[in-house]
């Protein structure tokens, strides 16, 4: 009996490669998300520090009009940067969810092919088992026939 050969093995390998590629893409996107979130945290920290410094200067009453304008400008720029960063994070979350869906689909497609392979392998093993049993039965029958001929002689 011939060895098991799955005709869709190339398709299965292609599906595995596609799944791996989707995993890599998702991993990169998650890394980018962590970086964007770290930058957002840094911006928020800078804004909070600025507000604390402004409050401290107000308490000391050492706040000039020029200094107030600098604080206001910095706060405005930082708040704008925070909004932009939040928008980037939101868009990346959407893309990550879409990529997760693609990955899940790729996993389902791979598993479907693997299921077919497992079924075909089981059928092959069953056929090999029947072939082996048939061969053993033939050998046993041949031995009985040979013993019967020896007893007659």
Mind explaining what this structure looks like?
- This protein is mainly α and 153 residues long.
- The chain has one domain: Helix Hairpins.
- It has two helices and no strands.
- The radius of gyration is 36 Å and the shape is rod-shaped.
- The two termini are 37 Å apart.
- The model has no long low-confidence stretch (mean pLDDT 92).
- Reading the helices and strands in chain order gives HH
Mean pLDDT: 92
The overall number of domains is 1
Q: Can you tell me the overall shape?
A: rod-shaped
| CATH domain class name | Mainly Alpha
Extended strand count:
0
Stretches where pLDDT is under 50 for at least 5 consecutive residues are none
In CATH, the architecture is Orthogonal Bundle
């Amino acid at each position: 009996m011939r060895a098991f050969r799955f005709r869709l093995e190339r398709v299965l390998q292609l599906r595995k490669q596609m799944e791996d590629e989707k995993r890599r893409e998702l991993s990169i996107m998650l890394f980018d998300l962590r970086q964007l979130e770290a930058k957002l945290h840094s911006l928020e920290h800078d804004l909070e520090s600025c507000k604390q410094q402004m409050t401290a200067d107000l308490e000391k009453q050492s706040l000039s009009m020029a200094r107030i304008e600098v604080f206001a400008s910095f706060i405005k720029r930082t708040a704008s940067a925070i909004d932009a960063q939040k928008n980037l994070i939101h868009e990346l979350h959407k893309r990550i969810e879409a990529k997760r869906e693609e990955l899940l689909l790729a996993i389902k497609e791979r598993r479907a092919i693997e299921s077919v392979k497992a079924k075909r392998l089981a059928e092959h093993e069953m056929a090999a088992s029947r072939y082996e049993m048939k061969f053993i039965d033939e050998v046993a029958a041949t031995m009985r026939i040979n013993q019967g001929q020896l007893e007659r002689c």
